[in-house]
Design goal:
mainly beta; Immunoglobulin-like; 3 domains; ten-stranded mixed beta sheet; nine-stranded mixed beta sheet
Length: 705
């Protein structure tokens, strides 16, 4: 198979800055082409308490790698005038009241998005997601957005809404598939004062007035990872925020020069990290107390892997000096307030941040987290950044730009270094990677966050000067087919696809990646701590569009993706001339493919694998699928009737694939998991590929659960 991507016909060639042409969709959208996955909702508030998650996830594709509990954007006004609404819902035009020190905790679209453009959430992508099939079944991702070839980024998500007391808010977020820029998302917020805040019309809802001393507040509740928090709290999502995750900030010199340096020479680096909880149990029965910085795993069969190795954070890139002065104010932010440490949450708050809280001008730091005098609950993982004060006349607006990112040590080293630390913890001879070495190792992850957010600053400067960040080619459409002794991959021919920025074809080749077991890393318990990740299994030239994976283990499930690699000639970015590889997430298969043995022409060697099946068998069972039993050496077509020791029919499995293998998940005809015991597989209606008949056979097997 060779598919040719038709480029120009499907692309909208003008960027939908006037978003009235795009369709409105209500619900979450995701920046999901890079190592950082970031959710955007229809409100200026994000949290992980609902079914849709995560807010941030780095590295993407690792189970429970969430890095943020919630975030919010607030509008705080010292005072304004509003109409007095009577008990019938009417307004008295001549009666006004003064609302002192107004704080809007968050703004929801409500019914506003139903009114259509410009209100709502809009998703734009440089390329539509590619078509993906596994064994002829559609495995593609849903896409409800607009494709445009004139974007400054690979994904742009716009949110347009109204907010009290009379602001139109436009939030634009940008992310990149470029592997040197895929660890952060850039935010551009515009607040325009209109006096209109309700969902009914476009008329002002407040008396004519200027607003003074307005503060815009951005708050993040960062955690290194939910996996580490859950480990310590035994599964609680929110309990861990009262323990050992911290946030702090510092002023640093940007790592990459840009025009932004002329006005904002220092770079704000806000970051979160994992501390040491003094109340953690011992790692193993009879073991000693352990320093849990990095949250070494102890609830899993394989112990020691570091689960909280990430450093989530953000940096302010630009804040207007005034509503009538769009130049950058290097003195912003005005306040950096740590919510938990300084006890500003008075009981009368009821969780509502106050105007006074954000107008103090304080830039707070937490106390020394290593000080034994600070008990484990005296920490903070929640920082608010306020910008202002601003004064507004009707029609004036303010722009704020910042970037959110996550850094950390390499994932695979959390396994290998975790085992080194575990050897030291167990007092094994020659082991030297102690608690201090562990903390120092994990601490190096902050350097990568510093690097990534410096790149975000460079990227915004480039975009702001109408020069797109260099971009890789898209990933090709992909077909994966299970086969007899192999798994076959075929993909779209990308040789004629031009570079997305320069328009010059620059394909150098393709890379093929494979993972054994579940699609997500550490999703299944039997994969945990073994470092089972996606691995590159082939590097191929630009004229090759198919690959036979002949090394796949029979009966095991595999996931794949194929990337394009350019020749680097069109890359004039931070690392000029370096080849760029397409997203590792754009055509990743979610359904497993299997290498099976072709069906024999006889059926005298039918077997059950594993036999006996033992639930706790670990590596004797199939990776990522603890309940899988495989019937092998089957005829091409047959019925597998499974009986228990008393002769009751438990399950009938129809084998119609023509292969010699058939998997069973140990669920009965009534969808109940079977119990321990002796079972008989009675194979009937046996036929060869040519439909010639074969005799019935049976095989006994044992299940121990």
């Amino acid at each position: 198979m060779k598919m040719l991507r038709i480029v120009n016909l499907i692309l909208i060639t003008t960027l939908m800055i006037s978003i009235v042409q795009a369709q409105t969709y209500v619900g979450s959208r995701f920046h999901d082409l890079g190592k950082l996955k970031h959710r955007i909702d229809t409100a200026l508030y994000l949290d992980t308490s609902g079914p849709t998650k995560p807010v941030l996830s780095w590295p993407q594709g690792v189970y429970d790698s969430e890095n943020c509990q919630f975030s919010r954007v607030l509008i705080n006004v010292e005072s304004y005038l509003s109409y007095l609404i009577d008990s019938t819902g009417g307004t008295h035009d001549t009666t006004i009241v003064t609302n002192e020190k107004y704080s809007n905790s968050y703004t929801s679209l409500g019914d506003l998005s139903d009114q259509g453009p410009p209100w709502g959430i809009y998703e734009y992508r440089r390329y539509a997601p590619p078509a993906i099939t596994v064994d002829s079944n559609n495995d593609s991702y849903n896409f409800n957005g607009v494709v445009s070839d004139s974007l400054m980024s690979d994904v742009q998500i716009d949110l347009v809404l109204k907010s009290s007391p009379g602001f139109y808010v436009t939030q634009k977020t940008f992310s990149f598939a470029n592997e040197f820029h895929d660890d952060y998302v850039i935010y551009h917020l515009n607040f325009k004062y209109t006096g209109d805040s309700d969902f009914l019309d476009l008329d002002p809802d407040y008396p004519p007035q200027d607003l003074s001393n307005v503060y815009f507040v951005i708050g993040y509740h960062m955690i290194p990872s939910f996996a580490g928090q859950k480990e310590i709290m035994y599964g609680s999502r929110w309990g861990g925020d009262a323990y050992d995750d911290w946030m702090d900030w510092e002023s640093v010199t940007p790592m990459y020069p840009s025009n932004i340096d002329d006005e904002r020479s220092d770079m704000l680096l806000v970051y979160g990290w994992d501390g040491d909880d003094t109340d953690v149990a011992t790692l193993e029965s009879g073991g000693k107390y352990f320093n849990d910085t990095g949250d070494p795993s102890f609830q899993h069969e394989i112990k020691g892997q570091f689960l909280s190795y990430q450093f989530p954070g953000y940096t302010l890139i630009h804040a207007d000096k005034a509503a009538d002065d769009p130049s950058d104010d290097p003195d912003m932010p005005q306040t950096l307030a740590i919510a938990d440490i300084f006890e500003t949450w008075a009981n009368t708050f009821s969780g509502q941040p106050s105007y006074e809280y954000f107008s103090t001008g304080e830039k707070q730091h937490p106390p020394d987290w290593e000080d034994p005098g600070n008990s484990h609950w005296k920490k903070s993982d929640h920082i608010y950044m306020s910008l202002g004060p601003y004064d507004f006349s009707m029609g004036e607006d303010v722009d704020i730009v910042y970037a959110v990112g996550v850094g950390g040590v390499d994932y695979e080293e959390t396994v290998t270094k975790g085992q080194e630390w575990l050897s030291w913890y167990r007092d094994e001879p020659g082991a030297t990677f102690d608690d201090d070495a562990k903390r120092d190792f994990i601490g190096t992850g902050l350097d990568s966050l510093y690097d990534y957010l410096s790149r975000a600053r460079w990227a915004w400067d480039r975009m702001n000067n109408d020069h797109p960040v260099p971009a890789p080619l898209p990933s090709p459409g992909l077909e994966v087919t299970s086969g007899g002794g192999f798994i076959k991959l075929e993909w779209e021919d990308m040789s004629a696809v031009p570079d997305p920025v320069t328009g010059i074809p620059d394909l150098a080749g393709y890379n093929v990646y494979r993972k054994l077991g579940a699609q997500l890393v550490n999703f299944k318990e039997d994969e945990f701590g073994k470092g089972i990740v996606y691995e590159k299994i082939a590097e191929l030239g630009p004229d090759i569009t198919e690959f036979l994976d002949t090394t796949a283990i029979r009966g095991e499930n595999y996931r794949y993706f194929v990337t394009t690699v350019d020749d680097g000639t069109q890359n004039d970015g931070l690392f000029p001339g370096r080849p760029l590889e397409s997203s590792h997430f754009q055509n990743r298969t979610s359904t497993g493919a299997v290498s099976f043995k072709p069906a024999p022409t006889h059926n005298d060697s039918v077997r059950v694998v594993p036999n006996p099946y033992i639930l706790s068998g670990g590596e004797l069972n199939f990776t990522g699928d603890l309940n899988k039993i495989l019937f092998i050496n089957l005829p091409a077509f047959c019925s597998i009737n499974i009986y228990n020791a008393t002769g009751d029919l438990v399950k009938t499995v129809e084998h119609t694939s023509g292969s010699g293998d058939e998997a069973w998940d140990q669920l009965s005809n009534s969808n109940q998991r079977i119990v321990s015991g002796v079972y008989i597989a009675y194979v009937t209606n046996c036929r060869n590929l040519d439909e010639s008949k074969l005799p019935d056979v049976y095989e006994k097997f044992v299940v121990i659960r």
